[in-house]
């Protein structure tokens, strides 16, 4: 949702970071690390952990844009 919001209001760089975060920034390193630490369980939870990290990344991006919009509305 955050990615679509950022794309629709013209914040292309932030939208690209959020879009790349799930598969590129988090999933690939996690799929290499977690199975070595946790074995098969690491493979099973890799997607979930990647999604959680992506959520934690997108929250500040979304909140900062909403705050910018509030400031523009007041002016």
In percent terms, what proportion of residues is strand?
A: under 5%
Global outline: elongated
Which stretches are poorly predicted, pLDDT < 50 over at least 5 residues? none
Average per-residue pLDDT, rounded, comes to 93
The rounded Rg comes to 16 Å
Structural class: mainly alpha
Count of runs of 4 or more consecutive helical residues: 3
Spatial gap, N to C terminus: 27 Å
The total of beta strands comes to 0
Q: How many domains make up the 3D coordinates?
A: 1
Largest sheet: none
Instruction: Report helical residue fraction.
Output: over 70%
Q: Would you write up a description of this structure?
A:
This protein is an all-alpha fold. It has one domain (2-74). It has three helices and no strands. Helix 1 (2-8) runs antiparallel to helix 2. The protein is elongated, with a radius of gyration of 16 Å. The two termini are 27 Å apart. The mean pLDDT is 93.
Helices, strands, pairings?
Blueprint: H1 2-8, H2 12-38, H3 40-74
Could you give a short description of this structure?
The chain is mainly α and 75 residues long. It has three helices and no strands.
Attribute tags:
75 residues, elongated
